[in-house]
Amino acid sequence: MLDRPDAASLLQAMAKTLTDEVLPTTSGGTRHSVRVVANLCRILERETVQGFAASERTRVALAELLTKQAPLPELVAELDRALKNGDEDFENRARRVLLDDVGRRLAIDRPGYDA
Amino acid sequence: MSTDEAEILAQRLSALLPGEVKVAVTGIASLGAQRRTLFLDVYESATGRTTKAVAQIAGAGLESNIVETVEHEARLLRAAELAGVVVPHILAANPESGTIISELVEGESIPRRILRLVEARPELGAKLAADCGRAFGMIHQIPTAAFEDLQELGDPERYAAEMETLLDSLADPHPTFRLGVSWLRRHASPFEGVPVIVHGDFRLGNFLASDRGLTAVLDWELVHRGDPMEDLAWLCLRTWRFGADALVAGGFGSLEDLRTAYEKAGGQWREEGFRWWTVARTLWWGLGLARQAQAYLDGLSTSIVLAASGRRVVELEYDLLRLMDDSSSS
Questions:
Q1: In this structure, are B300 and B242 located in the same domain?
Q2: Which residues lie below 8 Å from residue A2, measured CB to CB, with a gap of 6+?
Q3: Looking only at Cα atoms, what is the longest distance across chain B?
């Protein structure tokens, strides 16, 4: 069965409650923490919607670059090892994959940063 | 802080100051884990004069080498003042208790407030960039003879190796930062001169500014010897522009204003060095954010702010990739 509201919708409501209702009643360090938590809710809301597709695209791109099928964390570790001894040509190909991946992560963590 | 505690502290602080004085604690700016900052009134009975002052007290046990840090900082602040840099005038320094008491300087340190001042009066931004350039010029001319004990961090090869060690100490792999390390090795631009005094953390948030411009350079804890371009690159890092990205010099001024004033104050600008340090410091800060997140993941801290730092790492990855791209295409 489907639970409603879903995660994204709840996270959106949590961010709004924190910003509109909690934030005005706080000051100093607590105020900063509330801002941070509200922002994390917005990040998680976007991650809930975009996260799976984003990491799957990175996994596919890395599998092609490294000519190996494996889960994403394993491929990232493999790329890191390969870059330790990589030549410039490999670095350039890796850089393109990394830039695409960073773009997808920014869309979740900090939209507009790469505008 | 209770009234009793404030009274005991005021007495302790009075004892550190020269002459017959009476100290009153008038406010607390921060009770940070690293340092407590207190506002004081210092009343001198002989002259009847009251001086507004600030006491910074390092938190016991949190900074590993408080005595040395405070001793260095006090010595540096005095040398910087002699060299003409705008810094708070030190009234007393007591390394044993981790305390520095200095005269209060007017000005704003909160980045967004400074940027709002600049937004309202763009000419203030140009003035501030020029003031920073001049301050760097003077800092980099502080005679180093008395500071041979300061760590020397200017060698590009060694710096790259240190970044690699930091990277390898993290639990998760960061391929973008791995690329950063090889870029640093491939593009090393060594500083051929005698290592200068480098402030190490001069950027928006670590200085005071008023509507007259720069009023004090603060936060000298990371001072060391090295390549002057490290300082200029750090001020200009995108991360310290707090969203005012178009104004390369700290989010408030142009690179040209900064550079012109720096050169006029006797500094020598090295474009290659500036670019190398921009990449190097971006990498360092990216690793710094990843380390903050690591402290949370390892259970060393429960701070939500440190946890959130993990989601800012990608910003530095983006900056780094763009910076490396710019330099390989030109």
A1: yes
A2: none
A3: 67
Residue B100 backbone phi and psi in degrees, to 5:
-125, 130
> How much is the pTM?
0.92
A43 in B contact zone (CB under 8 Å): yes
Pick from B178, B182, B304: which is nearest to A36 by CB? B304
Same domain for B130 and B98, yes or no, is no
Burial of B199 (0-12, 13-18, 19+ CB in 10 A): buried
Residue from the list A37, A40, A83 with its beta carbon closest to the beta carbon of B175:
A83
CB contact under 8 A, A83 and B324: no
- State whether residue A30 sits within 8 Å of chain B by CB: no
User: Are B145 and B31 members of one domain?
Assistant: no
* Number of neighbours of residue B28 by Cβ within 10 angstroms: 12
Domain that holds residue B91: 3-103
pLDDT at position B328 is 58
| Alpha carbons B277 and B260: distance in angstroms, whole number | 19
What are B238-241's contacts with CB under 8 Å, separation 24+?
A: B238/B282, B238/B319, B239/B282, B239/B285, B239/B315, B239/B316, B239/B319, B240/B111, B240/B203, B240/B204, B240/B205, B241/B204
Domain end residue (candidates: B50, B80, B103): B103
Q: Are residues B94 and B116 in the same domain?
A: no
A40 contact residues in B (CB cutoff 8 A): 304, 307-308, 311
The residue among B73, B225, B237, B208 whose CA lies nearest residue B135 is: B208
Candidates B66, B57, B47, B76; CA nearest to B8 is: B57
Chain B positions touching A110 (Cβ under 8 A) are 311-312, 314-315
- What is the model's pLDDT at position B34? 66
The strand pairing partners of B38, in sequence order, are B28, B55
Tell me: do B226 and B261 sit in the same domain. yes
Q: Is there a contact between A105 and B321 if contact means CB atoms under 8 Å apart?
A: no
Q: Domain boundary residue among B49, B81, B103? A: B103
pLDDT tens digits, B268-291: 999 999 999 999 999 999 999 999
Residue B129 and residue B266 in one domain: yes
Here the tokens at position B252 are: 């408030």
Residue-level length of chain B: 330
The beta-carbon neighbor of B182 closest among A37, A79, A91 is A91
Sketch the domain layout of chain A as residue ranges: 7-109
Model ipTM value: 0.96
The answer on B242 and B171 residing in a single domain is yes
- Which of the pair, B302 or B330, is modelled with greater confidence? B302
